[in-house]
Write a structure and sequence with these properties.
4 domains; 47 helices; 7-stranded parallel sheet; alpha/beta; about 1050 residues; Rossmann fold
Length: about 1050
C-alpha cells in the first residue's frame, strides 16, 4: 500500500494546515484548502498500512507463517503515522483526536520510532479516554509504561491477560514470551471471530505492540547482548529508573557486541539514545568484571559535567564511583591514580573480582587526561574501557592536535584486551577512523535513523505581502508547502526625542529570528544560532535595551517560563553582572545568551533550565553543537558564517540535531531567518547552493586531522587566493627551524603581491596556528624520549608519526612530508634540549620547546624571588612579568594605563563579581586598541579575559613554571612552592579567593558567586577538597538548602544528588 504522489500532496496540505495553527496564523488568513481534495481520503491508506503491519507482526508472533510472509515496509508505516499526526495537528476534525493519536503512536512505535510514539502518547494523555473502548485503552497502556499499571478496571479479560504478562515481565523478567504469545493468540482468535472492525484493529495493535515490547525489552536483550546470565542484570533491571526497552541504536550496539567488550566506532544521530547506551556499555563492563576502571573522555567541560551528573545518578545505587577531576593542570588530591591497583589478568582479560575495590568511572577532558598521562602514564594501562564522546574532534584546530596525539598515546598504552568506543553523531569516515584507532575498519556501528522528524524552512519577504516560511524547498523528494503571514512587522513606540518610526522585525536575520522565537516559544524550546559571540550579544542586548523597552505586542519569553526560575536567574545575574547589565535585564525577560564567553556555572544553569523546560529561549553560537543535550523544538539560524568561514557541514548537522528532542518533541524545525537566501536564490545561486549543501548530510566533510593542515597553503584575507611563492612543506620546515626568518619574509608578501588582499596580520595568524601544531608535536616527542642515542630517538620519531591518524589519512606525498617534519622536530629537540631528563620534564608541560626554554631560563634567573614568595598572591606578583611576556593576549601589553589588567587579574583572584571587575577598569579609565581607535572594556571582553587568558592560558604556563622550579629547588622549598603554585593555578582557573571556595566549586557548584556563598562561615582550613565540601553539606543539609534556594535550580539539583541516601 505504497503512498502515491497525490497522497503525498494531500499529506503536505494537511501538514501546512497544522503549521498555520502552530505558527499562530489567524484562522481567517489560512490558505484555503483545494476544492478537489478531501483530506480524510488519506485515512483508509494510513489506517490500513498500520493495521496490515500490526497483523503481520502478530501472525509472525503466533506462528502463522502464511500471513507473516507479506511485509509492509517500515517507511510506509512511519509515513502513515505522520499522516495521522498531521491531520490531528490540522484541527480539521477534533472528534477524531483520540483515534488519530493512538493510531499515530502505534504506527510510530511499530515503525521503530519510539521517540515519536512517546510524544503522541503524551498528547493522548491530554484527552478524555473513551471509557468503554477497552481495547484502545489497553493499546495505550501497552505503549505507556505497562509495568506501572494494575489493569484491574479493564473489561476485556483477554486484553488484561496480555497486559498482566507485560507488567510482570518488565517488573521481574518473568512470565516470558510463550505466555505472552498464548495470550496474544487468544485475543486474536476472539477478535477475528467476534470483534467489530475497530476492535479487530485494536486487537492486532495490542498484540503487535506487546510482542514487540517483549522482544525489545532490556530483560530479553541485555543478557544476550552482554553474554551474562539474567541474574547479573536482575538487581539493576528491577529498579524503576532502569532502562526498560532498548531503542534501535541501543540494539544496534548490542548486535555489534559492544555490551560484551567489543570495541567500535559508533556513528548515530543526536537523540538516538547514545547516552543511555554509554551507560550500558560501562555497566556491562563492570558486571562482567572485565574492568574496574572506565575512562570517559569528552571535549568540553560542560559536556564532562553533564556526563558526570547523568552517570552519577545512573550508578548511585550500584556502588560505582563516578569522578570528574578538576580541569586544572595539576594532580588532584582526591585522585591518586598511582593507587589504582591493576587487577587485569593479562591472559584472560578478566579482573580479579576477589580483590576488594570499587569500580569507578572517571570523566575528563583531553587536556586533563593528556596532563595526567604525562605525570602518571599507568592510568591507561589500568583502564579496561575507554569511551570517547563527541569523538570527531581531530580537525578542530590546536585542540584537534591535542586530541589526536592523546589518542595516539592511549593506543600505545592500552592493553590489547581493553575496550575502546568512539562515539559521534557526525563522523562521516567512521571506517577510516576505526581502521586507525582499532586496526579494523569493519568495527563500525552506524545508523542514520532519526527518532524525531525534522523540517527545514526559509524565511521569505515577498513584495507587498507579509513574511512567509517556505518548507521543504531544499529537497526534491519532499512535497513543498508554505505558511503565510508568519512575519508581520509592527511599528514600535518612539522613545523620547525620536522623530523616526522604527519597526519590528526589521529585514535583518537576527531581528527576524528574535521575532519568530517570540511567536514560537509557546510551543517549545527555541534556540537562535549566530556565527559569532558578538552577534549573539547584539540580539540579546537589543531585545533587553531597545525592543522590550519600547514595548511590542508580543509577550516576552518569561511569560512562558517558570517565574520562580526567572527570579532565581535574575538574582544570580545581579550578583554576577550587576542589576543594570544587559544580561540581567534580558534574564528578567527570559532571554539567555549561551556562548564561549558565558561563564561555566551560568551555562550549566541555563542548560539545566532548558532541559527542564523552565526557560524557553537561548541565543547561542556553536556551543550548542558541543554535545550538550537540550530539548530544542525550533532552531533559528541567522547565518551559517563563523567569521570569514562558513560553519562546517558536519558541525551544522550536530547543531541541527538539537532540534526535535526524541521523546519530547516529535518534530524539530530548522528555520533560516535571512530572507535573502530564499528570495535571491536565482540571483545569487552560489549562496543558495552553499546552504543546500549545508543541509545535505552527504555533503559533510570527512573527519580529518589538524596535523595535515600544516601543509595547507597560506591564503589571503578573503580565503580566495593561495600563496604560491613558497610551498607549504617549505613553510612548515621554516616554522620548525627558522621562525624569525619566516616572520620577516611574511612582512614582504603584501608588497610583492599587491592587490591580492594579503595582509601581514592575517598571514601571521595562519602561521601561528601552524606553529601551535609544531609545538604539540615537540611536546609529544619529548614525552616519548627515553635514554636512547640521538639517532635512535630520530628513528623513533619517524616510527611515531606512522601511528597518528594524520598518517593513516594522508596521501603518500603527505606521509613523506609528515615524516620529514617529525624528524626535523626531533633533531631540533636534540639540538636545543640535549639533556634527556630535561626533555622528559618539558614533555610534561604540554608546551613547545621555545616556551619551555623561556620559562626554564626565567625561573633560573628568578629562583630566589620565587622561593621567597610567602603566599599565592605574592607568587602571582612575582610571576606577572613572565605571564605577560609569554601570553598570546595582546591586550596585556597594549592596554592603557599600564597595569590595568594586573588590577583586573587581582580582582579575579579575589573573587570579585564581573560587575565589580568592569567597575575596576572603568575607574582606571582603561582602554585597548580597536582598529584606529581605543575601546573601553565591556562585560563580554572582561569575561573573555578572565576565563580564557587568566583561567586557561595562565594556568597552563603555571604548570610549566612548577615543573622547572621543582627540578632545581630543595625538597623543602619545593613543597612550599608547590602549595602556593597549585592554589594560585586553581584560583586563576576559577576566579576564587581561597581553597574553601575552590572545594565547593569542584564539588559541583561550579559558579563563582555560589561557591563563595557556600564557603562563607566555614572554619578556615576546614574545607580543603571537594570531599570535605560534600561531607559538610551532608552533615548540615538544612543550612545549605537555605543558601541555595535563591539560585537557579541546577545548583539545587547538585545539592539533592550530594545529599541523596
Amino acid at each position: 500500500m505504497k503512498p502515491k504522489k497525490r497522497a503525498r500532496y494531500a499529506a503536505a496540505v494537511t501538514l501546512s494546515k497544522g503549521k498555520m495553527f502552530e505558527y499562530g496564523v489567524p484562522e481567517g488568513d489560512h490558505i484555503e484548502l483545494p476544492d478537489d481534495l478531501d483530506l480524510q481520503m488519506q485515512f483508509p491508506l494510513a489506517v490500513g498500512t498500520v493495521g496490515d503491519f500490526a497483523s503481520e507482526v502478530v501472525a509472525k508472533t503466533i506462528g502463522n507463517s502464511i500471513e507473516a510472509q507479506s511485509q509492509t515496509p517500515l517507511d510506509e508505516v512511519i509515513f502513515s503515522a505522520q499522516v495521522l499526526q498531521a491531520f490531528d495537528d490540522s484541527l480539521l476534525n477534533k472528534e477524531l483526536s483520540f483515534n488519530l493519536r493512538i493510531l499515530a503512536a502505534a504506527g510510530f512505535y511499530l515503525g521503530d520510532v519510539p521517540g515519536n510514539a512517546s510524544v503522541q502518547l503524551s498528547k493522548l494523555s491530554q484527552l478524555d479516554f473513551p471509557k468503554h473502548d477497552t481495547l484502545a485503552i489497553a493499546v495505550k497502556t501497552a505503549m505507556d509504561r505497562p509495568w506501572e499499571h494494575t489493569n484491574e478496571t479493564l473489561e476485556s479479560s483477554r486484553a488484561k491477560d496480555i497486559l498482566d504478562v507485560l507488567c510482570q515481565h518488565f517488573r521481574n523478567g518473568r512470565n516470558g514470551r510463550q505466555k505472552a504469545y498464548d495470550a496474544i493468540k487468544s485475543l486474536r482468535e476472539w477478535a477475528y471471530s467476534h470483534a467489530s472492525a475497530h476492535d479487530l484493529l485494536m486487537a492486532d495493535l495490542l498484540g503487535a505492540i506487546s510482542a514487540t515490547r517483549i522482544a525489545n525489552s532490556a530483560w530479553t536483550l541485555l543478557p544476550r547482548y552482554s553474554n551474562l546470565p539474567q541474574e547479573k542484570w536482575e538487581t539493576y533491571l528491577s529498579r524503576s529508573m532502569s532502562i526498560k526497552e532498548m531503542w534501535p541504536s541501543q540494539r544496534l550496539l548490542g548486535e555489534a557486541g559492544l555490551y560484551r567488550g567489543i570495541s567500535g566506532v559508533v556513528q548515530m544521530p543526536t537523540s538516538a539514545g547514545k547516552s543511555r547506551a554509554t551507560e550500558l556499555i560501562i555497566r556491562s563492563a563492570f558486571l562482567s568484571a572485565r574492568t574496574k576502571l572506565a575512562l570517559v573522555i569528552a571535549p568540553f567541560r560542560a559536556l564532562c559535567q553533564e556526563i558526570a551528573n547523568d552517570l552519577e545518578k545512573a550508578f548511585k545505587d550500584d556502588g560505582y564511583d563516578v569522578n570528574q577531576p578538576s580541569d586544572a593542570l595539576q594532580p588532584d588530591v582526591e585522585f591518586d591514580f598511582s593507587n589504582l591497583s591493576d587487577f587485569l589478568d593479562l591472559e584472560s582479560g578478566i579482573f580479579d573480582s576477589e580483590v576488594e575495590s570499587k569500580p569507578q568511572v572517571i570523566i575528563l577532558t583531553p587536556e586533563k587526561l593528556l596532563y595526567i598521562l604525562r605525570q602518571e602514564p599507568d592510568i591507561v594501562q589500568k583502564a579496561g574501557l575507554v569511551v570517547y564522546d563527541e569523538g570527531h574532534q581531530f580537525d578542530t584546530g590546536s585542540r584537534g592536535v591535542t586530541y589526536e596525539l592523546l589518542l595516539t598515546s592511549i593506543k600505545r598504552m592500552l592493553h590489547e584486551n581493553a575496550q575502546s568506543v568512539l562515539i559521534s553523531a557526525v563522523i562521516q569516515n567512521a571506517a577510516s577512523v576505526a581502521a586507525w584507532l582499532l586496526n579494523d575498519g569493519s568495527k563500525v556501528v552506524s545508523s542514520r535513523a532519526l527518532q524525531a522528524s525534522r523540517l527545514i524552512a526559509f524565511a521569505s519577504l515577498p513584495k507587498g505581502k507579509d513574511g512567509q516560511l517556505q518548507f521543504n524547498v531544499a529537497s526534491d523528494s519532499d512535497q513543498k508547502f508554505f505558511v503565510p503571514r508568519v512575519i508581520v512587522s509592527e511599528k514600535m513606540p518612539r522613545l523620547p526625542k525620536e522623530r523616526k518610526d522604527r519597526f519590528f522585525p526589521t529585514q535583518e536575520s537576527g531581528s527576524i529570528a528574535l521575532y519568530l522565537s517570540l511567536r514560537l516559544l509557546k510551543n517549545g524550546g527555541v534556540a537562535i544560532f549566530t556565527g559569532r559571540k558578538s552577534s549573539a550579544a547584539k540580539i540579546v542586548r537589543e531585545a533587553a535595551e531597545d525592543i522590550f523597552r519600547r514595548g511590542i505586542s508580543l509577550e516576552p519569553p518569561s511569560a512562558h517560563s517558570d517565574p520562580d526560575e526567572i527570579r532565581r536567574f535574575v538574582y544570580l545575574f545581579e550578583r554576577n553582572f550587576g542589576a543594570n547589565a544587559y544580561l540581567t535585564q534580558a534574564a528578567a525577560l527570559g532571554i539567555f545568551a549561551h556562548h564561549g564567553n558565558t561563564p561555566q556555572g551560568v551555562r550549566l544553569a541555563i542548560e539545566y533550565a532548558m532541559r527542564q523546560s523552565l526557560i524557553r529561549l537561548i541565543i547561542c553560537t556553536s556551543t550548542l553543537a558541543q554535545g550538550v543535550n537540550l530539548p530544542i523544538r525550533y532552531l533559528l539560524v541567522t547565518s551559517a558564517m563563523q567569521g570569514r568561514e562558513s560553519i562546517k557541514v558536519r558541525d551544522f548537522h550536530n547543531l541541527m540535531g538539537r532540534a526535535g528532542r526524541a521523546g519530547m518533541y516529535g518534530e524539530g524545525t530548522v528555520i533560516f531567518t535571512d530572507p535573502r537566501l530564499y528570495d535571491e536564490r536565482f540571483a545569487k545561486t552560489y549562496r543558495w547552493q552553499e546552504t543546500i549543501n549545508l543541509i545535505n548530510p552527504d555533503s559533510a566533510e570527512p573527519t580529518g586531522s589538524t596535523l595535515l593542515s600544516l601543509f595547507d597553503p597560506l591564503r589571503n584575507d578573503l580565503g580566495t587566493v593561495t600563496l604560491s611563492s613558497s610551498s607549504s612543506a617549505e613553510v612548515a620546515t621554516y616554522i620548525v627551524n627558522d621562525w624569525e626568518t619566516l616572520l620577516k619574509w611574511v612582512e614582504s608578501v603584501p608588497i610583492n603581491i599587491p592587490k591580492q588582499n594579503f595582509s601581514v596580520a592575517s598571514l601571521i595568524e595562519q602561521l601561528k596556528s601552524k606553529k601551535k601544531i609544531i609545538e604539540a608535536i615537540e611536546s609529544f616527542l619529548m614525552t616519548y624520549r627515553s635514554d636512547v642515542q640521538p639517532e635512535t630517538f630520530v628513528d623513533n620519531s619517524r616510527e611515531l608519526v606512522t601511528e597518528t591518524l594524520a598518517y593513516s589519512l594522508a596521501t603518500e606525498e603527505q606521509q613523506i612530508l609528515l615524516t620529514d617534519i617529525f624528524e626535523s622536530v626531533a633533531r631540533r629537540i636534540e639540538l636545543f634540549v640535549p639533556d634527556t631528563a630535561i626533555q622528559k620534564r618539558f614533555g610534561r608541560t604540554l608546551l613547545g620547546i621555545d616556551q619551555a626554554l623561556a620559562i626554564e631560563s626565567w625561573v633560573t634567573t628568578n629562583a630566589n624571588a620565587l622561593e621567597g614568595a610567602t603566599s599565592a598572591d605574592h607568587l602571582f606578583d612575582v610571576l606577572w612579568p613572565l605571564l605577560v611576556l609569554l601570553s598570546n593576549e595582546k591586550r596585556l601589553s597594549d592596554t592603557v594605563p599600564n597595569g590595568a589588567l594586573k588590577t583586573l587579574a587581582l580582582g579575579w583572584l579575589a573573587g570579585d563579581s564581573f560587575a565589580a571587575l568592569v567597575q575596576r577598569l572603568d575607574k582606571l579609565g582603561a582602554s585597548y586598541p580597536y582598529g584606529a581607535n581605543q575601546r573601553k572594556f565591556d562585560l563580554d571582553v572582561v569575561v573573555d579575559l578572565c576565563e580564557q587568558t587568566f583561567g586557561f592560558e595562565f594556568a597552563l604556563l603555571l604548570a610549566a613554571v612548577k615543573e622547572s622550579f621543582l627540578a632545581f629547588s630543595s625538597e623543602q622549598a619545593g613543597e612550599v612552592f608547590r602549595e602556593y603554585v597549585d592554589l594560585l593555578q586553581k584560583r586563576l582557573k576559577y576566579g576564587l579567593p581561597n581553597q574553601s571556595c575552590i572545594a565547593f566549586f569542584e564539588a559541583g557548584f561550579a559558579e563563582r558567586v555560589i561557591a563563595q556563598c557556600l564557603a562563607e562561615g566555614t572554619t578556615q582550613g576546614a574545607i580543603q577538597v571537594s570531599f570535605d565540601a560534600r561531607h559538610m553539606i551532608r552533615q548540615n543539609p538544612e543550612r545549605f538548602e537555605v543558601m541555595l534556594q535563591g539560585f537557579p535550580s541546577y545548583f539545587f539539583d547538585v545539592f539533592k544528588t550530594i545529599t541523596a541516601p
